[in-house]
Each structure stands twice: as C-alpha cells, then as structure tokens.
Amino acid sequence: AQSVTQLDSQVPVFEEAPVELRCNYSSSVSVYLFWYVQYPNQGLQLLLKYLSGSTLVKGINGFEAEFNKSQTSFHLRKPSVHISDTAEYFCAVSEGSGGSNYKLTFGKGTLLTVNP
Amino acid sequence: DTEVTQTPKHLVMGMTNKKSLKCEQHMGHRAMYWYKQKAKKPPELMFVYSYEKLSINESVPSRFSPECPNSSLLNLHLHALQPEDSALYLCASTERGRVGEQFFGPGTRLTVL
Lengths: 116, 113
Hints:
heterodimer; A: mainly beta; six-stranded mixed sheet; globular; B: mainly beta; seven-stranded mixed sheet; four-stranded antiparallel sheet
C-alpha cells in the first residue's frame, strides 16, 4: 500500500524568503508523485508532477520539486515566496495510472503562511 | 474550457431533507471523482466513475448516492444526512489513465443542521 507523510503541518516564512515543504512516501512499486495547492475557499490545483525522467521537476508559480528515490522523498521548493503563496499544500502519490481503479493518496497537508 | 464547475457553492440542509450536488466538466474527461474534505484535512475519496460506470465506492454510507447521467455530469444525491456530514464536497475529473492529474472544482460547502 502507498502512503505519504508531510513532515510539517505548518510552515511560516517571511516574504521573499526561500521555502521547502517536505514530503516522504512509501510504496512497494513505482510511483507517480504530485503536489497540489489549495487556496482558501477553493478546490485543489495541480502544482507539479513527477512521472518519470528528470528528477527535478518544475511547476507553476515558480515552484519546483526533486524526486529522490533513495530517500523516498519529493520535497517542494521555491526560492522566493510571495504573500499570495499562502495556502495549503498537499503531496500526493499514485501507484498506477493506467486503469480506473487507481487512486490518489494525499498527505495531511502543510499550511504555508507567508508573512510581510 | 479547463474548468470543473460545481453547484451550489453553499448548501444548508436539515437531517430530513433531500438535496443534490452537481458537477460538470467539458474537457472530455472520462474519469470523475467525488471527495469529502473536512477542515484542515486532506480530501477523502468517496466515489470514482470511469466511462459513466461506478468503479470505486470507498464504503460510503448509503445516504450518499452518486449518479453519472452522461460523460460531462456527475451528481451526488443526499438524503437523511447527519451533522458530521458537514464538509466541503469536491468534484474532480481527469483523463482516463492520468489518475494523478486531476482537475478540481471549487467545491460545495455543505452544512447539515
């Protein structure tokens, strides 16, 4: 079975500072990894995805993440955050993509709060 | 059109009421999902439809009844709900074979009195 652990439930940072949101996963098979963002009172939006290939993936809004198979991690980073990045961030994993019975497993979320 | 729409945005209902939530997408996606999200928690999967057929039911109580009348529409019929069912209900869709790349609607905020 697959699982996702987001190590920090809350991360406060100052505007223009760098940020890293940590995510570790466990799975017995190859996985596909994702980061979603949820702004207040909205649905989730896909930030970026790792399916295969280069371990450094770039997403929207200046975010990037690095897949590390040996450490089973997929940490999210941004070199300089804005107030508008304040949101809940969810790491997610899927063990497959080819059939209708595959599910997305979410971590518990990390609340990123950017302060002026 | 890369949007998933949900109606209504807010819904307040009593425990004896019957109501329905509606979700619509016009991206040609053939997999559609219902999630329930409590405050400060991740979304919990409830149902998955693939090609208009129910493929996953996560042991959801029968007071929640999903329906997929066509490839663009997904409904969630509600009956005899409990106060603990109050939550944000999210709909999502994806191309078949891309389970991780889901497009989410803004959700319906449900309050059960």
